Amino acid sequence: MLDQTIASLLSTVLGGFLTIVGGFIAIYFTQHMTNKAEKKRLALVKIEEAYILTYEVTAGLRSYVARIGREIISSENLQVDWQFNEDFLNTNYLIVQKLGMVIQLYFPEIQGDFKEFSISMRECLNSSSQIGVTRDRDEFKNIIAKVEEAHSNMNLAIAKLIEKV
Predict the structure, then answer these.
(1) In the chain, which residues have pLDDT < 70?
(2) 139 burial class (0-12, 13-18, 19+ CB within 10 angstroms)?
(3) What is the pLDDT of residue 27?
(4) Ranges of each domain in the chain
(5) Is 0.90 surpassed by the pTM of this model?
(6) So what's the architecture of 43-164 in CATH?
(7) CA pair distance 62, 59, nearest whole angstrom
(8) Which pLDDT belongs to residue 10?
(9) Cβ contacts of residue 144 below 8 Å, gap of 6+?
(10) Torsion-angle region of residue 135: left (phi > 0), alpha (psi -120 to 50) or beta?
(11) What integer pLDDT is reported at residue 37 of this predicted model?
């Protein structure tokens, strides 16, 4: 009788202990999987943000170069809207800085690619601020080529991030 009571008590204690341990393990595992899924979702959101910012600054610069190019081609006396020019440049510098922040915080492994992109974009933006003065059509081609190359390199780096996620 005493053996049966001890066996019953022991099985109850052991069952309770295993239930508690199993509960902790299940909670830990569930939390771990939730965190992992959340990190992946956040990474994808930030990758999308980086791609959109890259596109915005590149498309804006393409549009701006095309606008100035049309003005140079269509008029003898070039009248550049310098206020638009300054606003455009400031907006795009801010976009490049925001992109840099996203890259630095979330994807430090592609900082080298971003640095090349940033240098190319700043060079293009600085050159574009001089377009109205130079009136050189070949400069347009060079600027557009730099923009396209920088944009392509940055997109390749972003694509590498997507593969990792």
Answers:
(1) 1-2, 68-85, 127-140, 143
(2) middle
(3) 92
(4) 43-164
(5) no
(6) Up-down Bundle (1.20)
(7) 5
(8) 85
(9) 62, 65
(10) left
(11) 92
**43: buried, middle or exposed (CB in 10 Å: 19+, 13-18, 0-12)?**
middle
pLDDT score, position 139: 67
pLDDT one-digit tens code per residue, 25-61: 999 999 999 999 999 999 889 989 988 988 888 888 7
SS (H, E, C) the chain: CHHHHHHHHHHHHHHHHHHHHHHHHHHHHHHHHHHHHHHHHHHHHHHHHHHHHHHHHHHHHHHHHHHHHHHHHHCCCCCCCHHHHHHHHHHHHHHHHHHHHHHHHHCHHHHHHHHHHHHHHHHHHHHHCCHHHHCCHHHHHHHHHHHHHHHHHHHHHHHHHHHHC
Tokens of 56: 């915005």
Closest to 135 (Cα-Cα) out of 69, 65, 79: 69
Cα 138 to Cα 15: distance, rounded to the nearest angstrom: 81
Residues 6+ apart with CB under 8 A from 134: none
